[in-house]
Design goal:
There is one protein chain. The protein contains 9 helices and 7 strands, in the order ααβαβαβαββαααββα. Strands 6-2-1-3-7 form a 5-stranded mixed sheet, with helices on both faces. It has a two-stranded antiparallel ribbon with strand order 4-5. Helix 5 packs across helix 7. The longest helix is centred in the N-terminal third of the chain and has 62 residues. The protein is extended, with a radius of gyration of 29 Å.
C-alpha cells in the first residue's frame, strides 16, 4: 500500500493543470512574435538609416548646385552688361504680429485659413495669385517673406511639431514622419525640409502635417507694428529680410 501511495504522489506532482499549460504556450507564442517583430523593426531601421543618409547627401548636393547655378548666372549677366532677374519665390513664411483685438470677420477668416490663430504663430504658404491677394488683405496683422534653407531647416528641427489625429506631437524621430507621410515618399526630416523648401509636389500634405510654429517675441522687440516694413515698421512683406527676423524669434 505504501508503494502504491508513493507512485500516485509522484504522478500527481508531475501533473500540470491544463490552464497553466495554455498560459505557458500563449506567453511563449507572444514572446516569440515580439522577438520576431523587434528583429524585423531593427533590420528596417538599419535599412532606413542607410537610405536617409543617401538622401541627405543627394539633397546637400542639390542645394549646392542650386546656389552655384544662381551665382554663375549673376556673374554671366554682369559680364554681359545685363541684369540678373531671380526666379519668383515659390513659398513664403508668414508670422502673425498682432492679436485679436479689432480684427474684422474677413481678416479673421483669412488668418484662420493660414493657420495663424495666435500671436507669434508662423506657417509656410505656397505663393500663387490667390494666396498673394490674401496676404495683402491681412498685411497689417502679419509679416512675411521668402525663407532660405537655413530658416526652413532651423524652424523644423527646433520648433517642428506634427499634427497627428488632431494632436500636437513632437517630432522626436523619423518614425512619426514615415507613418504619416511615407505614402508620399517622405520618410525623414530631411525629406520634409526638401519638400517644403523646394515646394515639391506634396507640399500641401507636408505643410498640413506640420503644426503651426509657436515662436517667441523677436529679440530686441518690434520697431512699430502699425507701420509697414518699407516705412520702418514691422508689418507686410520683408522679402529676404524675413530670415533674420524669424531667426530672432527662433532664439538664435
Amino acid at each position: 500500500f505504501f508503494f502504491f501511495w508513493l507512485e500516485a504522489l509522484v504522478m500527481s506532482s508531475k501533473h500540470v493543470p491544463e490552464r497553466v499549460v495554455k498560459k505557458q504556450k500563449t506567453a511563449a507564442s507572444i514572446a516569440e512574435s515580439d522577438a520576431a517583430a523587434r528583429t524585423a523593426l531593427k533590420a528596417k531601421r538599419r535599412q532606413n538609416r542607410r537610405e536617409i543618409y543617401k538622401r541627405a547627401q543627394k539633397y546637400a548636393k542639390e542645394y549646392h548646385q542650386m546656389q552655384r547655378a544662381e551665382i554663375t548666372a549673376r556673374r554671366q549677366a554682369k559680364e554681359g552688361g545685363n541684369f540678373y532677374l531671380a526666379a519668383e519665390p515659390k513659398i513664403a513664411i508668414v508670422t502673425r504680429i498682432k492679436g485679436i483685438l479689432g480684427v474684422d470677420p474677413k481678416t479673421r477668416k483669412i488668418l484662420k485659413l493660414f493657420r495663424l490663430p495666435q500671436l507669434h504663430n508662423a506657417t509656410f504658404v505656397r505663393l500663387n495669385d490667390a494666396t498673394i491677394k490674401m496676404l495683402r488683405l491681412v498685411e497689417p496683422y502679419v509679416t512675411y517673406g521668402y525663407p532660405n534653407l537655413k530658416t526652413v531647416r532651423e524652424l523644423i528641427y527646433k520648433r517642428g511639431f506634427a499634427k497627428v489625429n488632431g494632436q500636437r506631437i513632437p517630432i522626436t524621430n523619423n518614425d512619426v514622419i514615415e507613418r504619416n507621410l511615407g505614402r508620399f515618399g517622405i520618410i525623414c526630416v530631411e525629406d520634409l525640409i526638401h519638400e517644403i523648401y523646394t515646394c515639391g509636389p506634396h507640399f500641401k500634405e507636408a505643410n498640413s502635417f506640420l503644426w503651426s510654429f509657436k515662436l517667441s517675441s523677436p529679440k530686441g522687440g518690434y520697431n512699430r507694428k502699425r507701420n509697414h516694413f518699407v516705412e520702418g515698421g514691422d508689418a507686410g512683406n520683408r522679402e529676404k529680410y524675413i530670415n533674420s527676423f524669424i531667426q530672432s524669434m527662433n532664439g538664435n
